[in-house]
Every structure is written in C-alpha cells, then in structure tokens.
Amino acid sequence: MAILNILEFPDPRLRTVAKPVESVDDDLRRLIDDMFETMYAAPGIGLAATQVNVHQRLVVMDLSEDKSEPRVFINPEFEPLTAELGPYQEGCLSVPGFYENVERPLQVRIRALDRDGQPFELVAEGLLAVCIQHECDHLNGKLFVDYLSTLKRDRIRKKLEKQHRQHG
Ligand SMILES: [Zn+2]
Questions:
Q1: Where are the transmembrane segments (predicted)?
Q2: Which residues pair with 72 in a beta bridge?
Q3: CA atoms of 108 and 148, how far apart (whole Å)
Q4: β-bridge pairing 119-125 and 58-61
Q5: Between the CA of residue 75 and those of 78, 118, 152, what are the distances in Å?
Q6: Which CATH code for domain 12-167?
Q7: pLDDT at 164 over 90
Q8: Spatial distance between the Cα atoms of 6 and 14, rounded to a whole number of angstroms
Q9: Would you list the domain boundaries of the chain?
Q10: Binding site, annotated residues for Fe cation
C-alpha cells in the first residue's frame, strides 16, 4: 500500500468533476486500499478520489474511533429525505486546519456500489449524512469552503497559499 499526496485548496485540480467508475476490479481495489491508508495516516474520516488527483467517483470513509468500520462508496448518489437543514462543523483534509459550520439536509438516502461492485442503499443521518454529502461534493469539484462567505473563503485561501509557499 502507499500513502498518496492529498491536494489542498485552492489547487484547481480539486475542481475536476469525476467520471463514473466503469469496472470494480483489482486495480480499483488497490486504489481503495491506498486511499484508506492515506486517510488513516492523515488522519481523517473521509476521502474522495478527487483529493488524491484520481478523477473517478470513489469515496472511502471510516467514522469509527478505532479504524474498525471502513466504508467504500463507488459511484455514490444521495437524495435528501428531509427539507430540514442542520449545521455541522466540517473540516477537510484538502483544507487543513480550518473548521466551519455548513448547513446540509439532515437525512439522506445513499446509493452506491461496494468494493465488490455490489449495489447497496442506506439511509443516513448525523455525521454519516454530512460526510457522504461532503465527499460527493468533492466528486463534483466542490469544497465545503464554497458554502462560506466570500470573505471567509478568501481568508482561508490566503492562509493556505502562504503555507504552501513556505512549505513547498
Ligand atoms: Zn473534504
């Protein structure tokens, strides 16, 4: 397995719209394993392929405290099951060090393929609902900072650009 490089805002490659995965094969499963290793090492709870500069519709996630609940979502789609929005403080491995409240639907239905290519469906609330919406945004080239005011987003962008200049 390998730890992959995570793109950071405002890298324009994070704006790429990912293409659907066409076949769930061993190459894809190797990428999935690398993404888990990268996410756990960061550490983080979710990672979209977009963030490691692979523009396929693939998300890995583990919301447990002890790395015991790895979840794979291939070609994920969600639909809100309620119009009710709730704020949740979000962070992102591509926007390191910044946490801001974002309003999203509180309950969603998720459809995706698992790592064997089998379709599954689940109803999500709480952190899982937030996380899948955040990760699906990545696959569409969108970041949580896009929900913030221009002022806040620019402040974050400038701080990260400064860090990137200092650390290469
Ligand atoms: Zn993210």
A1: none
A2: 60
A3: 22
A4: unpaired
A5: 10, 11, 31
A6: 3.90.45.10
A7: yes
A8: 10
A9: 12-167
A10: 92, 134, 138
Q: Would you please indicate which residues are annotated as catalytic (active-site) residues?
A: 135
φ and ψ at residue 104, rounded to 5 degrees: -140, 160
* pLDDT, tens digit, 9 for 90 and up, residues 74-104: 999 999 999 999 999 999 999 999 999 999 9
Residue pair 145/14 in contact (Cβ under 8 Å)? The answer is no
* Residue carrying structure tokens 């650390």: 167
User: Using CA atoms in the order 107, 79, 87, 102, what is the torsion angle rounded to 10 degrees?
Assistant: 160
pLDDT in tens, 7-35: 999 999 999 999 999 999 999 999 999 99
Q: pTM for this structure?
A: 0.96
- How many Cα atoms sit within 13 Å of 23 on the Cβ side? 3
Annotated binding site: 92, 134, 138
Give the DSSP per-residue string, 58-125: EEEE--SSSS---EEEEEEEEEES-S-EEEEEE--TTSTT--EEEEEESEEEEEEE-TTS-EEEEEEE
Q: Are 28 and 35 in contact (CB under 8 A)?
A: no
Q: Alpha-carbon distance 75 to 21, whole Å? A: 6
CA of 66 to the centre of ligand 1 (A): 20
